[in-house]
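retry 2 of 3: previous attempt timed out while embedding (R)-mevalonate. Reduced batch size to 1 and resubmitted. Inputs unchanged:
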Amino acid sequence: MSQKRSNISGFYKLSYEDRVKVVSEFSGLNGEDVAWLKKGAPEMEDVEHMSENIIGTIGIPFGVATNFLINGKDYLVPMATEESSVVAAASHGAKIARVKGGFTATTTGSFMMVEIQVVDIDDPEVSKQRVLAEKEELLTMADTRSNTLPKLGAGAKDLEAEIFEGFYGSMVVFRLVVDVRDAMGANVMNTMAEYIAPKIAELAGGRVCLRVVDNYAIRRLAKATCVAGKEAIGGEDIIDNLLQGYSCAYFNQHRATGHNKGAMNGITAVVLATGNDTRAMESGFHSYAARCGRYRALPVWEKNKDGDLVGTLEMPVQVGIIGGMTKLHPVARTAIKILGVKSADELGQVLASVGLASKLAAERALAAEGIQDGHMRLHAGNIAMMAGAVGKEVEIIKEKLCVLKQVNLKTAQDELAKIKG
Ligand code: MEV
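retry 2 succeeded.
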């Protein structure tokens, strides 16, 4: 069988039915998966148990980004986002990167950490050493809280500690390192921390305060790189402009924030589509961007000796494929099926690649014609609907606004009045 390819020409021009057919064939979706995609939400009786004070669900558009080639494997990437142009940008960035072989991605492994804070201690160094001396026993205790991880050779692996001078005296923060494999891991980590905390307090001769998962997940990093050839990106001048823009983002926190948002556009959309924790991912990403003591641009751009653009993105990836919403939510389950990832590590590699692709497309537009033309063309359908267009009218008004290069509400209302008249 020939390898499946995600560079599907004209995918965005297909009808809804045809797009679903292509994705179903690519990812082996069945009728039930497709029905869930169309429905968009679990049955209300199940939604009732997913959060609190439920009175409904909100439908967010769910699409797939095309063209992704990561470590030699083709992916169609599911994305849930309310922002028009996010899916198009990721697909476009992936298309540029694909010319030079796509993305190369790695991970450091699925190690999460959980913190246990000990206060009211006389000598923090002595407390720290007394606890660390019993590390093996504490790791064994922690492992009793998981039925699965130790059997997989995963589970509690290390215990480290750091001393801080706080507002109310010294504290020692212990960090339990756990290989959580394909889980996001927050629940098992917090359970382990709460279980070993009394023993740590006893050994330290202090009082335990916080016991909570560490979202600065620097032992669970994914790194993606790509080369954007100067021809594919539109010329060396664009690359030079782009590098000027990157320099602005590196030194200027205002621009760094938007620069990073361009990567998060794609990342958050995939995290949401797969039922993962968008807040954990986002807090970890931005914290990692500030790891040198100052908030910096996280996607990095350079020029190589051939004059091509080289992009790198390294970031914490706190995602799983086996627990919580990733399993309970039928659309999230379908998203993981569409992606075809076999491990949380692989999902992390996809996320870093998607972040880089999203950023590449935004950077290219900013360095060339600007972002507004493309963005407004993709936004024109929303403007048409805001003006009151329905059904086929939406496409007609959208086309008209683009031809007139007047993507605004007033023009949409005027054009709609003409049609109706
Ligand atoms: C818009 O959603 C994202 C951008 O603002 C990102 C950036 O500024 O790089 C275009």
